[in-house]
Each structure stands twice: as structure tokens, then as C-alpha cells.
Amino acid sequence: MLKAIYSVKTSEPAVALAFNVAWGEEWVPAILEILAESGVRTTFFITGTWAVKFPQMVQAMVASGHEIANHGYDHPHPEQLTEKELVTLIEKNETLLRELTGVRTRLFAPPYGEVNQRIASVAGRLGYATIMWTVDTIDWQRPDPAVIVERAERRLAGGNIILVHPTEPTAAALPTILKRLAEKGYKVVTVSRLLELGPPVHTR
User: Fold this and answer.
1) Mode of pairing for the β-strands spanning 135-136 and 129-130
2) Closest of 183, 136, 159 to residue 5, by C-alpha
């Protein structure tokens, strides 16, 4: 049975930052620069509608060594879609991202974090692992950067997937997050790399 993945069971001190990218581009260049300065590679889950508007940024992510992944072509509520519509949501974006980058994506983060067995099964039949998160920074609400840092460190453990978005306070918080993780002995890796370190965990 195909199920969504919330974390990985591993003894390795590794975590993944998962950026869901569906709106806003202003802070993506700053985020890419911060990641480059820290030598960190992350996973960007991108919607097709965003990629159409900002193709050069998608290509910059790949050129910088980051992993791109599928966040659906647009951003509907997946639980309200038919199976055929779910297939289109994923495949239309896959076609676009491959045309832009030459990369075949293998991970799917459902919009709004809406997931059930049907959604995970459809994604699985298309060759995708459905990725959720262990810790949500809720940075899309644009809290103070210190709040984002505190949330990112909450229940910190190897195998965590930390959900973030490309917002101004996230960009402000990111250097501190990366510094704190490094000080505690944690390495930030892509989601795909994290999945190689142990079996997936299907509950939060």
C-alpha cells in the first residue's frame, strides 16, 4: 500500500528542508545565495503555474545543485479532485518541469498538504513518492524570523523533513537555521538523499 512519507527512520544526523514554491519570487534569489554560501542543497517542490512565470529561477535551482520536485501544476485542493484530475495535476507539471530542466521529478508534495490513500496511490502509480513533512514552520503566515527558527528546531531529530516557503522572514531566518543545525551536528540534505538513509515513516 502506497502511503505518504512524513520522515525517515535513521540514525544519521541528517534533515531535509523542503521548500514548497507556489507563489512569490522576490526572495528566491536570496535563498539560493544563502544556501550556496552554506554549501547546502535542498528540495524545491514547484507548481507549474509558478514555473511558467519564473522559468529562469527553476533553471537556477537545478544549476545550483538543488533537487526540484512536483507540487502539482496549479494549487487546487487535491481531495476535491477526481482521479483523472489528480493525474493531470501531476503529469502536466512533470511535462513542464522536464521541458524546462531535463529533469524527471520523482517526489510529489500535494497542494495544501492534503493527502489520503487515494492521492498517494495515484501519485505512486505515476512513479512518485508522496512527501509531507515532520515539522511545519508555518512561515507562509510571515511570522517573525525568530519564530521560524524556533519551529524549525522543534522536535529536531535525524530524518526530519522541515517545511518552508520562499518568504521574506524565511530568508531572514535561513542563515540562523542552517547555523543552528550545523552546531547541533545535523547535515541538511535533499529529500531524495534523506530517503536513502532509512525506511520511510508514514505518520507524523
Assistant:
1) unpaired
2) 159
- What is the CATH number for 74? 3.20.20.370
Low-confidence ranges of the chain (pLDDT < 50): none
**DSSP states of 103-167 as a string?**
----EE--GGG---HHHHHHHHHTT-EEB--SEE--GGG---HHHHHHHHHTT--TTBEEEE---
Q: Which range marks the domain in which residue 141 is found?
A: 7-201
Quote the pLDDT of residue 38. 96
Query: Residue 35: enclosing H or E segment and its boundaries?
Result: helix 28-38
Pair 48, 97: CB distance under 8 Å: yes
Count structural domains, the chain: 1
Three-state DSSP at 17 gives strand
User: What is the model's pLDDT at position 35?
Assistant: 98
70 found inside a domain: yes
